[in-house]
Design brief:
Layout (H helix, E strand, L loop, with lengths): L15 H7 L2 H4 L3 H17 L5 H18 L13 H13 L12 H37 L4 E6 L2 E7 H25 L2 E3 L16 H4 L3 E3 L3 H6 L2 H28 L6 E2 L18 H24 L14 H23 L2 E2 L1 H8 L6 H10 L4 H17 L9 H7 L5 H7 L2 H6 L7
Parallel strand pairs: 3-4
Antiparallel strand pairs: 1-2, 5-6
Bound molecules: arginine.
């Protein structure tokens, strides 16, 4: 028999449809271990407030610890009769300890419990994700290091722009992910774990008198219980930081997808990180990268779902708020699996240097260097830009490389264009070396 935490007032059994519709145990079991931690702290408060004697407190704490163990092997699902994980734990405790378990809920509410446990869960997961970000950054750094002299065409509008070092390109992604990590760390460091709100108005035990910090590191007594039970900013902040991170990873995924096409042929992905086609035997597809691109949509969806769920909710707790957990869990899982699979994939990426070199032969990549050359010789930037524009047009129309143009032809565009100097500009290395803005 599964007892409700609120049955007394009701004369009728809850309709089975309502039972199913309101249930959250099939997903909130994930915060069960964190809920037990909160309950153990709560027992200590109750003992200090003399609602429990020492012997009772020890019994309750040991009971909670054994449920903590038991939970590890329980398969929670919709079929589990408890409404949520908090009710399940309370029921288990009662089965185990009998009447004394009924004292545990003195001066507390699930409204307080659920915020506490979700926050503890979030803290643990955030820590794991920052470690995974570090692993990802390391894999990126190794790849950059293995190809430290490699220069590739850089693009704007996905059109040839200027040559860049691959290591700088990859480092641009590293910088994005470091910002993501900073955002996650900021949330981690500023997340306030509170207890003592009760349902909304606080409780007759003023938790502030019991120095929660001494009982459990980091836990504060709530300073405004109304805010504490109705605050889900931390969920929204996490979903937002993970959305930004997912957006960054989707851009990296897209770059690697493009580079792996036959048309580009810049990289070869390791077979073990690609998938095939059931119909076309020749196919080797970058499915994981496509999924990473696709998951950005899920991450944004989860953020918008919780933002919208919270919009316009009157204070304080409303049942709508139960719907924060699936998006939160889902985004944390996506972020973690994306980082892991990408780090693995990066380890096996091979760059096709010949192919890249062929592409670097495109003279248009050095047009800007020609402009700088003229500017250095005293030509005003706009004039230099126009001269080189005409030169490029002439080269395209006449299918003649600028490098091969005779000196006299070059000089017809500008007297300052000296063949012997101009030819040296069509060098990827000279081009990247001439740029001073990237700190390495
Ligand atoms: N499972 C609920 C949740 O996640 C617990 C809170 C229920 N509180 C209430 N007042 N009905 O939000």
């Amino acid at each position: 028999m599964n007892k409700k935490l609120w049955g007394g007032r009701f004369s009728k059994k809850t309709n089975a449809l309502v039972e199913d519709f309101t249930k959250s145990i099939h997903y909130d079991y994930k915060i069960g271990q964190c809920d037990i931690l909160g309950s153990i702290i709560h027992v200590q408060i109750l003992e200090k407030a003399k609602y429990l004697n020492h012997e009772e407190a020890i019994k309750l704490i040991n009971g909670l610890k054994s449920i903590h163990e038991k939970m590890k092997s329980v398969k929670f699902s919709m079929n589990c009769p408890a409404e949520d994980i908090h009710s399940w734990i309370q029921n288990e405790l009662q089965k185990k300890l009998g009447n004394i378990a009924k004292k545990l809920h003195t001066a507390r509410s699930r409204n307080d419990q659920v915020v506490f446990s979700t926050k503890v869960y979030a803290l643990t997961e955030l820590k794991k994700i920052t470690i995974e970000v570090d692993n990802f950054l390391y894999a990126l750094e190794v790849l950059a290091d293995r190809n430290k002299d490699l220069i590739i065409p850089g693009y704007t509008h996905l059109q040839h722009a200027q040559p860049v070092y691959l290591k700088d390109y990859l480092n641009a992604y590293a910088r994005m992910l470091k910002r993501d990590k900073n955002r996650l760390n900021f949330i981690f460091n500023n997340l306030e774990l509170t207890l003592g709100s009760g349902a909304l108005a606080g409780t007759p035990i003023d938790a502030r008198n019991y120095n929660l910090k001494a009982i459990a590191l980091q836990v504060e007594a709530t300073s405004n219980s109304l805010d504490s039970v109705s605050d889900r900013d931390f969920v929204i902040e996490i979903l937002s930081a993970l959305s930004i991170q997912g957006m960054h990873l989707s851009r990296l995924a897209e770059d690697f997808i493009i580079w792996s096409t036959q048309e580009f042929g810049f990289i070869e992905l390791d077979d073990s990180f690609c998938t095939g086609s059931s119909l076309m035997p020749q196919k080797k597809n970058p499915d994981i990268l496509e999924l990473i691109r696709g998951y950005a949509g899920r991450l944004y969806g989860n953020l918008v779902s919780v933002l919208t769920m919270m919009k316009g909710l009157s204070l304080t707790y409303n049942r709508d708020m139960q719907l924060d957990k699936e998006p939160l869990f889902n985004s944390l899982e996506i972020a973690s699996s994306e980082l892991k699979v990408l780090a693995g994939m990066l380890r096996g990426v091979k760059f096709n240097k010949e192919r890249i070199e062929e592409r670097l032969a495109d003279e248009s990549l050095y047009a800007t260097d020609l402009v700088y050359y003229l500017v250095d010789k005293g030509v005003a930037f706009e004039d230099a830009h126009a001269i080189v524009g005409k030169l490029v047009r002439y080269s395209l129309d006449n299918k003649m490389l600028i490098k091969t143009m005779p000196d006299s032809l070059l000089r017809s565009f500008s007297q300052k264009l000296v063949k012997g100097q101009v030819v040296k500009l069509f060098s990827p290395l000279a081009s990247v070396k001439a740029k001073k803005s990237i700190k390495r």
